[in-house]
Amino acid sequence: LLFLVSNLCGKCRPRDTGLLQPSLNFLYWSLHQTTPCSQQRAVAVLLSNVSLLELLQKVLECTWLRSPPSGPAYLSSEDALLCSGWLLVASLLLYQHRYNTEVHQTLSLDLTEVLNAVIFRNKKPILLLVSIMQFLRVALRQNFSSSLLVMVGQNTEQGATQSQPSSLQDAALHPLATQQVFSLVVSLQNLLVHKDLLLSQAVVACLETLVEYLYVKNQDVALHVASQPWHRFLLFTLLNGGQKSLLQPEVLRLMTLFVRYQSSNIISQKEISQILQEAAEANLAELPEATSCALHLFLCQV
Question: Coil, strand, or helix at residue 152?
Answer without folding.
Answer: strand
